[in-house]
Amino acid sequence: MAAAVSNAGGLGIITGLTQGTPEKLAAEIARCKTMTDKPFGVNITFLPSMTPPDYPGLIQAVIDGGVKIVETAGNNPAPYMPALKEAGIKVIHKCTAVRHALKAEKVGCDAVSVDGFECGGHPGEDDIPNFILLPRAADELTIPFVSSGGMADARSLVASLAMGAEGMNMGTRFIATREAPVHDNVKAAILAATELDTRLVMRPLRNTERVLNNSAVERLLEKEKALGADIKIEDILPEVAGVYPKIMKEGDMDAGAWSCGMVAGLINDVPTVQELMDRIMSEADSLIKQRLAGL
């Protein structure tokens, strides 16, 4: 998938944590290099955990693999910045608030990905959509940034550029492509969804996640309503723990909660990555040169 995005003119990203170990990440980096001669990056998400991943090992695998772009997310990447910068790696940190973006700039990140409330996954706790968040980021930052959350097509790209971003980051949209290594049921669920079909879960735990609605999500929300402030992560483990393989690989769409953005309402086909990228660039060119230039 990462190779397909890079070959199509984007920046493909390998997700480091899903590989499991530094050795498996190293193998995936090597495999990607056999599939593209274009730049690609690796995402490393820093999460609080009782048994954290081998972050130093994952970062060493990135360095040894010659990858020159790392997207970080979650906690502050500052502890790992010296190793990354010494290796000449450009660091893009994903942020859901301007204050977080400014902190990333301060600790030496080269760019940030500004993630609006529309996004799938974790939108933070401020609930600021991109029509406000992106211009605010442009007002405050001196490093470049890309938009993230709600991005699907040429309109997304042109609007992002107008609000100060240098480009856009797509997640949910790329799941609905031919190359995406997920079950066809996942792609069908995205196509069937509208912008009204996502839900916010884990808000009482201050770990908000936007997910596509299903029976497991409805059950989770009922637990949150019943338990209120007394809810603990253990109460919802059946709906959130270890569910991704069942959903993404086996196609069991009610196995648990899975991240999906509101942008599902804008997704109506399953093209190849190249077809999607070519369409975005062609339509963006038309929007800028025809619609906007004619105003």
Tell me the layout of helices and strands.
Layout: H1 2-7, E1 12-15, H2 22-35, E2 40-46, H3 55-64, E3 69-74, H4 81-86, E4 90-95, H5 98-106, E5 111-115, H6 130-140, E6 145-148, H7 154-162, E7 168-169, H8 172-175, H9 184-192, E8 198-201, E9 209-212, H10 215-227, H11 237-240, H12 244-249, H13 273-292
Parallel strand pairs: 1-2, 2-3, 3-4, 4-5, 5-6, 6-7
Antiparallel strand pairs: 8-9
Explain how this protein is built.
β2, α3 (55-64) and β3 form a beta-alpha-beta unit. Helices cover 41% and strands 14% of the residues. It has helices at 2-7, 22-35, 55-64, 81-86, 98-106, 130-140, 154-162, 172-175, 184-192, 215-227, 237-240, 244-249, 273-292; strands at 12-15, 40-46, 69-74, 90-95, 111-115, 145-148, 168-169, 198-201, 209-212. The protein has a domain at 2-173: Alpha-Beta Barrel (TIM Barrel), CATH 3.20.20. The strands form two sheets. Strands 1-2-3-4-5-6-7 form a seven-stranded parallel beta sheet. The protein is α/β, with parallel strands linked by helices and 295 residues long. The relative contact order is 0.11. The mean pLDDT is 96. It contains 13 helices and nine strands.
